[in-house]
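seq/struct pair 1
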Amino acid sequence: MTIESTNWTPDAFRHRFVVANGVRLHVAEAGNTGPLVLLLHGFPECWASWIPVMGRLVDAGFRVAAPDMRGYGTSEKPRGVGAYRWDALTGDIHGLVDALGERQVHLVGHDWGAIVAWMTVMDDASRYSHLTICNVPHPAHFTRMALDPTQLRRSWYIAWFQLPRVPERTLQRDDHALLRRVLKADRIPGTLDPALLELQIEAATQPGALTAMLNYYRAMVRQGPRAVTRRLRRITVPTIVCWGQRDRALGVDYAAPPTAWVPDCEVRRFPDASHWVQVDRPDAVARAIRDLHERDRVGARERQATDP
């Protein structure tokens, strides 16, 4: 399997709605054979942020599926901050695996999608064969991050997002100028397709979407750190963390998860990528996903060779 450049566009994907955990989710899919890779986007994006990676994976022999997460794009937008608690978010992913008719999937996440991916695999690892994380620390780091003055300055926006209505109005102002600036921030020149940017703006401007998207942050703060520490479980599935070192929101010191919590983990750092590593370096992220499966095949061949 090779990872080459790709010219995949949104029209190349199959689109449908499924009900997962009682919520109607839009899902984009491609590929007909091979292992299924389920990709979860972050804030303030949508399923389409994965197009450059998804195309490469399909060309390399995988099947792919990427939802608009609860509250995003054309997926259902439950009202109220409580609808975005940890149990609701992880329940969506378990339900989505069921709705896709799979026993196990390779779970991939970026930003908020990566937080949900960590939490989901800790909740029930039996449904997930592999895990790939893009630019989000392991939840075991969250308490230390909350006491780190440098990281607190980087994460100032989380406090601002707690305000009612003000962030929504600010993000909408002047044809969503601030939202556009966030989506363009720190990108490597030439990596963000203007059509992809407009797709993400369109997704974020669906009725109720901005409030739903911000409710992820509001629910996280309201639940408090104990809600995270109670959910910490050892992850033993093969894991790769991909980290763009130009991330201005999250310090690279938090890239590697604690070995005690994730013993089978490799961290790949990319000095030429920003927080949006899956768009800046889709080749590298797709290769990391492929390499986890290749490692399985090599291990299986070695075990066969040593069997009496």
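seq/struct pair 2
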Amino acid sequence: MKKLSIIIISVLLIISFATATMGGSVYIDHSIWGQWEYKDNEGKGDGELILSTVGLEADINNFIIGLEGHLKTLVFEDDWFDEKYEVDYTGYQLKAGWRVVNGEKFDAALIVLGYYRERDQNSDQNSKYNLNGILLGTDLTFYLSDLISLEGSLGISVDAALKSEESGETFKNDAELIFLRLKYNYLYTENFGIYLSIKSFFEKYDDEFNSSFLSSGLAVGFNYRF
């Protein structure tokens, strides 16, 4: 129910915002493969990643604005009891940018990303975690034909922190974030298209364990251009 509510709210925000803009696209995708990996001084672990994304991007006189909502699930395997359990995340990403190159075969933009993600890992102990950060980066688009294009996005954090609350105590650690996304777009009609996306998000924390986290996934999506 929580996931459904978040999706509905995100879609309503996107639709209401899209009607007030001059041009852009609404998109939604879901992972067909995903994996996460965690490392620290004491060891490492990995498992399956499930990720759904819904978003909007608008272009107004070379000024770019965007909003994404993410639903991320990490699947853990308990080898001792031969069981699986899931940890859910909710995330949002705001984007603002300026298109510095606008050509027939190539586009380039400088972007600023605002990222926020939270999770409720253990409701019994009231354990909560949230991650937020500001990233600077670029968007690149190569138009291979009227129907096919390749996109690449890169963002590197200039300020990020992980805040956790466990049993009434609050902890905060600085973080480093790197976001990478590659997309293969095919325009099926004048307004409707499909795409294949590869996403990767790297996190490194300034804590006593020297911990890092990498999540990567392959997703299929649909977009509508307006």
